């Protein structure tokens, strides 16, 4: 089969690799229906995160089960399934606590494991990892489902960590796919005011479409004063969805005393935290990789009921043959998020 690998900085390539096979009774083999390039895929692509040449790529994908191991009874061949961006055994203490991304026996797609930017994937711990979609799926439904595997779940996690409540004001930092999904999640949580602070003026209309009541520029010197003035000293909740030092610093500037920052952006180049400001003003900083599996079933139910549609974050769809072009476009910020069709 064909799979995407990272061969060097700025160099992804589609190569022939051995077909995956069942290795454990808990495995499933899944044919990929749709995948995506994630903003976090760009960190190793740019050389800002370590990697081993030949690492598989892609952690956002959905597909159809082709074969299951002898120990798998809940899934069957032909099932359309959602795959959270990490697999987990479902039985250890972190999994029982809902922290599937902390499973000591689990892992993340890509790297030394199969990646989703490929034709097929071997899924360890299939029953605890995969979520079946019991519905007829056309191309449009696949597009609505794909963001659930990472960015929509991560946006929902940001809102949970930030303590967003009905009627409250939340500031979302970052207008990438995660930030836009956090806006959608804040609307889903019935926030009263949703202020998106971003760096891409061309995404303003999309942010409004996703539910932002206000869109402000991160690089505008007036933004901090404006938010503080209109929220009586800062927002009660800030969802930090970029993972950079500047985003974290801005989050600390925009949250009010007693407020909460929910940080879900993969940290890159974050060297310090203003701990004294957090301490002095009783500000809570809650950060963590999203246990996406925890969110999949309720998000899936809302998509199938027509109540949730995160597909607008997918600005472009390309065939797997053009995966290298997809990385270049994402790296040049010419697309918000690109779906990959095997």
Describe this structure in words.
- This protein has 342 residues and is an alpha/beta fold.
- The protein is built from 12 helices and 18 strands.
- The chain folds into 2 domains: 2-150 and 292-341, Medium-chain alcohol dehydrogenases, catalytic domain (Quinone Oxidoreductase, Chain A, domain 1, Alpha-Beta Complex); 152-287, Rossmann fold (3-Layer(aba) Sandwich).
- Strands 3, 5, 6, 9, 10, 17 and 18 form a 7-stranded mixed sheet that branches. It has a 6-stranded parallel sheet with strand order 13-12-11-14-15-16, sandwiched between helices.
- The mean pLDDT is 97.
- α5 crosses α11.
Helix and strand topology:
Elements: E1 2-8, E2 11-16, E3 28-37, H1 42-45, E4 55-56, E5 60-68, E6 80-83, E7 86-87, H2 93-96, E8 107-108, E9 120-123, H3 126-129, E10 131-132, H4 139-145, H5 151-161, E11 169-173, H6 177-188, E12 193-198, H7 204-210, E13 214-217, H8 223-230, E14 235-240, H9 245-254, E15 255-263, H10 275-280, E16 284-287, H11 293-304, E17 316-319, H12 323-331, E18 338-341
